[in-house]
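User: Can you help me understand a structure? I only have the sequence.
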Amino acid sequence: EVQLVESGGDSVQSGGSLRLSCEASGSTYSRSCMAWFRQAPGKEREGVGFIDRGGITNYADSVKGRFTISQDNAKNRLYLQMNSLKPEDTAMYYCAARSSPPCLLRSYLYTSWGQGTQVTVSS
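Assistant: Let's start by predicting it. Here is the structure, written out as tokens:
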């Protein structure tokens, strides 16, 4: 079992940047796939991007070229660098882990979740 704690959410203006962090503890075996999801009020949770054990990343079309996922295995941390933020990026952002591949942006595949961190982008 993996425990996940997100941090770094804040309120920023359109065009700004934020870096979210997710600290993981527990079994590293359970972290074949690490992903970021987000959920805006009244909307379904959507995948932002993932990184697999080998460091391969994939992103939703809506964030490609603006967001970057990275991980520091020595620190057991996952990061989401968000640049050129838009008001439509406003959401609660969640870190999630899946124990086995394939790594897909389907929320039902992920068994470990953090509590979320709020990102608000104003125009």
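Now, to help you interpret it: The chain has a mean pLDDT of 94. The longest strand covers residues 18-26. Let me know which part you'd like to focus on.
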